[in-house]
Amino acid sequence: MVGDLAYDTVRNRYGVVMERTPGQVHLRPGGGCREWTARPEHVELARPGEALSSRVARVNARSRGEVL
Questions:
Q1: Which of 17, 25, 40, 68 is found 20 to 30 A from 11 (Cα to Cα)?
Q2: Tens of pLDDT along 30-65?
Q3: Can you give the pLDDT at residue 17?
């Protein structure tokens, strides 16, 4: 679903689902940066604990000045 945190199993990255088109899921890292596309069969919705870990990592990076 658009707005949900998902995991790209090929790139081993988490991203927020920005859009779904036929044959593609458009993902963006939680801290912004460049969007990428993945095939729907390579994308899994993040479980609640994974979503929390990703958010905590982003907040910690921001506090260190690594993310704007």
A1: 68
A2: 766 789 999 999 999 988 776 666 666 667 777 787
A3: 94
- Alpha carbon 28 to its chain's center: 6
pTM of the model: 0.70
The four Cα atoms 37, 41, 45, 50 give a dihedral, to 10 degrees, of -80
Query: Side-chain half-sphere of 49: how many Cα atoms within 13 Å?
Result: 0
Amino acid at 29: P
Q: How is the chain split into domains, by residue range?
A: 5-63
**CA-angle at 24, arms to 41 and 52, nearest 5°:** 70
Residues in the chain: 68
